[in-house]
Amino acid sequence: MWEILQSWIYESAKLVWDNFIVWKNQNVIILDNWIKENEINFNLLENSKLILFWIYKLDWNYSIKCSQNRSWSQININILNLSKENKIKLLANSTISSNNSGTKINILSICWEWWNITIDSWLIIKKETNWWNWIINQENIFLWDSGRIIWIPGLDIRTNELKASHSLKVEKISREDLFYLESRGIDKQNATHIMLASKINNLFSWIPSEYDYFYQDELDKFLTK
What we know:
about 15% helix
């Protein structure tokens, strides 16, 4: 059974982001759209699972650090970047020293004109680690013609018993497709929402349908420039 934490509900107590522990045999889904801390640290214990759905939009400089030093742990981080700052930087850092575990990070950025995005991802796999699967995927969708993406992937791997992969994709919303939808009486904001829907729905596919508002409402706000 998954425990779903909506961190904005805990505004008075707040989640302890500087050292968030997923305990042994615990499965946690976190939905968050108001993180204010610049650094977030996760520590997974044995046979634990964490899925984080995070929309960041307030600040432009964040750091996520994941520590997995117990066996049979799984972490899946899904990040939707809706920041309206024109300089955005994210550091994703994983330190691994356990066996039979995995990490997957998916980052989707929806970018305004002249956006500058820097993603610095760093993976450290220690010598004693075996049977590990690590994946990071970054996708960037520009709403306009200009912008810049810098991705700095770093791998420090000290064992052969693992799988590690990374991918980067950059694309732009098609003006022809937008024009087609607008010619059918759909305003530009809703037309853009429709074109982005499949990407975002795929990113948040693990979220139960009753929580869809978590990202749909934020996307509507973002597209109203």
